[in-house]
Write a structure and sequence with these properties.
It is found in: Cell membrane. Its main location: membrane. This is G-protein coupled receptors family 1 profile domain-containing protein. Keywords: Cell membrane, G-protein coupled receptor, Membrane, Receptor, Transducer, Transmembrane, Transmembrane helix. This protein is an all-alpha fold. It has one domain: Up-down Bundle (Rhopdopsin 7-helix transmembrane proteins), CATH 1.20.1070.10. It has nine helices and two strands. Strands 1-2 form a two-stranded antiparallel sheet. Helix 1 packs antiparallel against helix 3 and helix 5 runs antiparallel to helix 7. The structure holds 2-acetamido-2-deoxy-beta-D-glucopyranose.
Length: 221
């Protein structure tokens, strides 16, 4: 339910502005609007990220330790994982928003993007963006890669169990439940890697927009 909630707001941070720009044939966003959009995008993207990792753990326990499922997924643990995810996502988004707020943008406070993701935003700033880039590549990557590694490890265990035990109705059902999770995970990480881990100089606006639409519209849907 938390993932549905996050995904609803994730799309709502971008789609209305995108439609408005399409109707007005505009390609810009003003700085006072850009910062909150960036903050919420970053918060909900990381929240998606963490919740997908928590759900991978759930799949992992269901497939690999089916008899211990009720003892390993107690409500207190679930609540702790969800609350912890919210706290980290909010702090991380605040950090990057505050760092961006220090920069100056020369073109009359109008940003020639309709979509405020961090890296393209650094490309249009006229101040020194070293600190921002360093934070994205260290703290930002850590926050994105840790859940990804957890998901990867979970799926390696799940696959080894599914290949080892004789195929029964039960394992087939578990694997199909995890299949939709796996599809979302692939879409989500595939597009995030394209957007965030490209050097900003080789960014083409169309590519960014296509990837951003993928992970704020297609994946949540
Ligand atoms: C999110 O998860 C927490 C902990 O499990 C739960 O108490 C809360 O109701 C959920 N919130 C939403 C909006 O789904």
């Amino acid at each position: 339910s938390n993932l549905s909630f996050v995904d609803l707001f994730f799309s709502s941070t971008t789609v209305p502005k995108m439609l408005a720009n399409h109707i007005l044939r505009s390609q810009t966003i003003s700085f006072p609007r850009c910062l909150p959009q960036m903050y919420f995008l970053s918060e909900f993207a990381n929240m998606d990220n963490f919740l997908l990792a928590v759900m991978a753990y759930d799949c992992f326990v269901a497939v690999c330790y089916p008899l211990h499922y009720t003892t390993k997924t107690i409500p207190q643990l679930c609540a702790l994982l969800v609350i912890g995810s919210w706290v980290i996502a909010i702090l991380n988004a605040l950090l990057h928003a505050l760092l961006i707020a220090q920069l100056s943008f020369c073109a009359d406070n109008i940003i020639p993007l309709f979509f405020c993701v961090v890296t393209p935003l650094l490309g249009v700033s006229c101040s020194d963006t070293h600190l921002n880039e360093m934070m994205i590549f260290t703290e930002g990557s850590l926050i994105m890669i840790t859940p990804f590694v957890c998901i990867l490890v979970s799926y390696i265990c799940i696959t080894s169990v599914v290949l080892r035990v004789p195929f029964t109705k039960g394992t087939g059902k578990d694997f199909s439940t995890c299949g939709s999770h796996l599809a979302v995970v692939s879409l989500f990480y595939g597009t995030i890697i394209v957007v965030y881990f490209n050097p900003s100089s080789s960014h083409s606006a169309e590519k960014d927009i296509a990837a951003a639409v993928m992970y704020t519209v297609v994946t949540p849907m």
